[in-house]
Each structure stands twice: as C-alpha cells, then as structure tokens.
C-alpha cells in the first residue's frame, strides 16, 4: 500500500512538472486557436449585451427542450404499456439509472450540508 502511494506521489509530481513546463505554451496556443471568440475591447456594455444574448438564446431554446422532454415521456409510457415485452437488460439499465439519480441526490444533500453525515440517508 505504501509503495502504491509513493508511485502515485511520483506520478503526481511528474504531472505537476509537465504542467508547469508546458502549461504556458498550451495556454497561448489555446488562446491563439480560439481568438475569434475573444472580444477585443471588453466593455461593460458589451458584456451586458453578451449576457443578454446568452440569456435570451437559452430562453428561446426552452420549447425545443420541452418538446424533447415530452417525447421521452411518451416513450416511457409506451414502454410501460408493453412492459411484458421488456428485456431483463432494459430493466437493469433503468434500475441502475434510478439508483444513480438517487446517489447523486444523496451526494448533493451531503455537499449541501457541508459534508456532514447527519439525517436519515444513512
């Protein structure tokens, strides 16, 4: 166990050295590659305009997302109507998905309480 810890520590040190040595070049390369997305003269007015564009673009996408949601609901309804034809694999995937959602809910509750393990979830 201690040898694994030392190996992991040495790997972390190597990764840190690599990032320190090549991080600045990667940053410059990334900015150069994506400079057409950067606003040249960032003013308060331009930032306000961009935030409004983002907000209203997302607001305009709600009907499309709502339609996709109702298609998914209809698909689940059809699956439920024909549940006798459901395979074990499909039921297992659905059960795992439900378990994953519950675990994320529990993890969110624990994080929201400041990483304290109190309450009735244990």
TrEMBL record:
Cellular component, GO, one term: mitochondrial membrane
InterPro entries named in the record: ATP_synth_F0_gsu_mt
UniProt superkingdom: Eukaryota
UniProt entry keywords in alphabetical sequence: ATP synthesis, CF(0), Hydrogen ion transport, Ion transport, Membrane, Mitochondrion, Transport
One term of GO molecular function: proton transmembrane transporter activity
Keyword hit for Ligase: no
Main location: mitochondrion
Segments passing through the bilayer: none
Pfam families in UniProt: ATP-synt_G
GO biological process: proton motive force-driven ATP synthesis
Location in the cell: Mitochondrion membrane
Family: Belongs to the ATPase g subunit family.
PANTHER family: ATP SYNTHASE SUBUNIT
Protein name: Mitochondrial ATP synthase subunit G protein
Record organism: Stephania cephalantha
């Amino acid at each position: 166990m201690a040898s694994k810890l030392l190996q992991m520590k040495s790997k972390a040190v190597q990764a840190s050295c690599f990032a320190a040595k090549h991080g600045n070049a990667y940053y410059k390369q990334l900015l150069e590659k994506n400079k057409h997305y950067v606003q040249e003269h960032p003013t308060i007015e331009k930032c306000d305009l961009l935030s409004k564009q983002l907000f209203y673009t997302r607001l305009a996408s709600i009907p499309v997302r709502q339609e996709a949601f109702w298609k998914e609901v209809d698909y689940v309804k059809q699956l439920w109507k024909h549940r006798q034809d459901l395979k074990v694999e499909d039921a297992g995937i659905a059960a795992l998905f439900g378990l994953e959602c519950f675990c994320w809910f529990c993890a969110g509750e624990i994080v929201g309480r400041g990483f304290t393990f109190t309450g009735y979830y244990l």
